[in-house]
């Protein structure tokens, strides 16, 4: 495993044993640090503490009007987000039947055990008007990190690892230096699966209105899946 260390003891490693590296990343996040890691949709920068979230927003020059998202999977989505059976069937169709990534926005249970030890500042800036954005099925690192986060009751919050509004980054070396410098541990996983010229990351769908919050990767395929449930995302417009 190749490793370099900067003056701030920043750790940069090639992707290896995803289970072991996820454990190490969660140790860093649980200790108040920041991690940068490869997802299928783009590289992400994540944390869990007030210090980390403030550091992420500062490094990205991100407005606090734009809340962080949360790593999730079907079980966590079902337990945390408030959805009806039909809505959950759509989630299943996307991530299981078609193996696609996307993010869901829906009301959530703030009293869920996952949020028990989350700092109020972090929760405030990872939710909006009673809803939370949850990223699903974004690759092996994302899925393993989510699984371990559930075991530890340590939710993972963050966003794409790039300067705000500058477009997602699909290789570690393409991430702007101020964003890279914010990370305590960085994983180099090569190019993201869904790298694209438009700088898109995950598509985000509001499950209360079925409007599109953000057009992202696999959007046309997602529209086709939603149509099988009688929902025309393109006709519904943007949230």
Give a written overview of the molecule.
It is built from 9 helices and 12 strands. It is of the alpha/beta class and 239 residues long. Residues 1-7 have low confidence and may be disordered. The radius of gyration is 17 Å and the shape is globular. Helix 1 (18-30) packs across helix 6 (140-152). It has a single domain (3-236), classed as DHBP synthase, CATH 3.90.870. The longest helix is centred in the N-terminal third of the chain and has 13 residues, at 18-30. Strands 1, 2, 3, 4, 5, 6, 7, 8, 9, 10, 11 and 12 form a 12-stranded mixed beta sheet that branches. It has helices at 18-30, 50-60, 74-80, 85-97, 120-124, 140-152, 177-182, 219-227, 233-236, and strands spanning 3-5, 11-14, 35-38, 43-47, 69-72, 102-107, 127-128, 131-136, 157-160, 185-188, 204-206, 211-214.
State the gist of this model:
With 239 residues, the chain is of the alpha/beta class. It has 9 helices and 12 strands. Helix content is 34%, strand content 21%.
* CATH homologous superfamily heading: DHBP synthase
The biggest beta sheet, please?
12 strands, mixed
What is the CATH third-level topology name?
A: DHBP synthase
Q: Calculate the mean pLDDT score and round it.
A: 96
- Count of separate DSSP helical elements: 9
How many β-strand stretches? 12
Number of domains: 1
Strand content: 15-25%
Q: Give, in order, the helices and strands.
A: EEHEEHEHHEHEEHEHEEEHH
Binned, the helix content reads 25-40%
- How far apart, in Å, are the first and last alpha carbons? 44 Å
What is the SS-derived class?
alpha/beta
Flag low-confidence runs. Answer: 1-7
CATH class: Alpha Beta
CATH architectural arrangement = Alpha-Beta Complex
Radius of gyration from CA coordinates: 17 Å
């Amino acid at each position: 495993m190749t490793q370099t260390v900067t003056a701030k003891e920043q750790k940069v490693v090639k992707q290896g044993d995803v289970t072991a590296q996820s454990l190490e990343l969660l140790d860093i996040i649980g200790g108040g640090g920041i991690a940068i890691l490869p997802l299928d949709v783009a590289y992400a920068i994540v944390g869990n503490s007030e210090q980390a979230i403030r550091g992420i927003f500062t490094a990205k020059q991100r407005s606090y009007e734009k809340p962080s998202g949360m790593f999730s999977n079907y079980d966590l989505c079902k337990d945390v987000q408030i959805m009806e059976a039909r809505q959950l069937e759509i989630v299943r169709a996307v991530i299981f039947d078609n193996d696609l990534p996307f993010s869901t926005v829906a009301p959530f249970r703030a009293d869920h055990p996952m949020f028990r030890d989350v700092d109020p500042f972090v929760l405030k800036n990872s939710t909006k008007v009673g809803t939370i954005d949850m990223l699903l099925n974004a690759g092996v690192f994302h899925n393993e990190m989510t699984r371990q986060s559930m075991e530890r009751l340590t939710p993972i919050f963050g966003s794409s690892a790039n300067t705000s509004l500058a477009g997602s980054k699909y290789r570690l070396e393409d991430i702007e230096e101020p964003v890279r410098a914010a990370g305590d541990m960085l994983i180099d996983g090569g190019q993201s699966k869904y790298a694209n010229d438009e700088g898109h990351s995950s598509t985000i769908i509001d499950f209360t209105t079925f409007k599109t919050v953000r057009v992202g990767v696999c959007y046309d395929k997602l529209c086709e899946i939603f149509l099988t449930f009688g929902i025309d995302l393109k006709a519904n417009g943007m949230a």
